[in-house]
Amino acid sequence: MPGIVIVGVQWGDEGKGKATDLLGERTDWVVKFNGGNNAGHTVVIGDEKYALHLLPSGILSPGVNAVIGNGVVIDLEVLFAELGALHARGVDVSRLKVSANAHIITQYHRTLDKVTERFLGKRMIGTTGRGIGPTYADKINRTGIRVQDLFDENILRQKVEGALDQKNHLLVKVFNRRSITVDEVVDDLLSYADRLRPMVCDTGLLLSDALDAGDVVVFEGGQATMLDIDHGTYPFVTSSSATAGGAATGSGVGPNRLDRIVGIVKAYTTRVGSGPFPTELFDENGDFLRSRGFEFGTTTGRPRRVGWYDAPITRYATRINGITDLVLTKLDILTGLKEIPVCVAYDVDGERFDEVPVNQTDFHHATPVLEHFPGWSEDISTARTFEDLPQTAQDYVLALEKMSGTRISVIGVGPSRDAVIVRHDLLD
């Protein structure tokens, strides 16, 4: 049985939670392998709407085992707040497991994230201010705090002391902030230790055993390809590996255990934060897509930047990730447009680029070469087969499929759990 990776194709917010939820009843394990509470999934089940920021969305499916892998950075306050909120709504959260090697977001990480972003001024990256980047920086600098450190107070105290020796100088002398004491950080972290302990294990071993037993394991990526630290629009990216390769390093299973790579892509494009965005709209079409699609961040509430579908980006993501199937979401949002432009290439100072330029400067100055497709006015939210769609909607999907380099297996036509058209089974 397969290991399935779900990744975002664009700049995030594509609707990855819907794809995970679609597989939910046939999935045994769902793993979050990167990121932290800097991005979220919104899942609609019946009349209930759930906004998740740190937990994998598979936790909402009865009987599914949820795992937070070693590639994730964890804000313990957020973790237990989410668990408590779900428990209060009747969701079973007892199956959650957490990697002993995952890194912890501390008070000083959150503080540094906020003051550093403000210090950058007009050069700011557009972070969420939740301490994600500073925590990953400490991980790479080998000064981070891991989950397992909470169970040895002496080790924890030594690590916090070492971190604050440097960070307090920065806070006080550069940013004119108060110093943070070792005791306040240690006491805060230790207050979660007893509740956390039963969840913690060697999740890499756990998942390998599950795959050996024939279980279906879904690896759920946070953010998306164009926000990947290596392959995204650097430096306007996240701090982790958001592509399919990150599923192996962020969960502790070998890449040969990953059988299917599912890319999630909107029928248009959005992003948040700073950075290049060739198809971005500043007119009434942008207002239409933002309003109709309710394009506001699940975690931050920030209005998302919106633009037309970008085929070169999808081809790039297909190649980088080895995508085998695409899930096209929010097709219904385009209903009512008389004409739907699609970016098929870029123009950079008179030169045509059919693929994403390798040079960031070129990409920053790229303008879209657009091809226009007829729209539709019919309500498609009740469509459950491809043939139920208006012919112009079918033509639009088939054109995107041809441009994108792989098959479109699932089409989202509304926010609810069952508002999907399945053209190809993701487990076949």
Outline:
This protein is of the alpha/beta class and 428 residues long.
What key phrases describe this protein's structure?
428 residues; alpha/beta; ten-stranded mixed beta sheet; four-stranded mixed beta sheet; 13 helices; 31% helix; 20% strand
Largest sheet properties: 10 strands, mixed
For the secondary structure, the number of strands is 20
Rounded to the nearest angstrom, the radius of gyration is 22 Å
Mean pLDDT: 92
Q: How much helix, percentage-wise, in residues?
A: 25-40%
Question: Which stretches are poorly predicted, pLDDT < 50 over at least 5 residues?
Answer: none
The N- to C-terminal Cα distance equals: 10 Å
Q: What structural category do the secondary elements indicate?
A: alpha/beta
How much of the polypeptide forms β-strand, as a percent range? Answer: 15-25%
What best-fitting shape do the alpha-carbon axes yield?
globular
Q: How is the largest sheet built, in terms of strand order?
A: 9-7-5-2-10-1-11-15-19-20
* SS field, number of helical segments: 13
Written account of the structure:
There is one protein chain. The protein is an alpha/beta fold. The chain has 13 helices and 20 strands. The strands form 5 sheets. Strands 9-7-5-2-10-1-11-15-19-20 form a 10-stranded mixed β-sheet, sandwiched between helices. Strands 14, 16, 17 and 18 form a 4-stranded mixed β-sheet that branches. Strands 3-4 form a two-stranded antiparallel sheet. A hairpin with a 2-residue loop joins strand 16 and strand 17. The chain is globular.
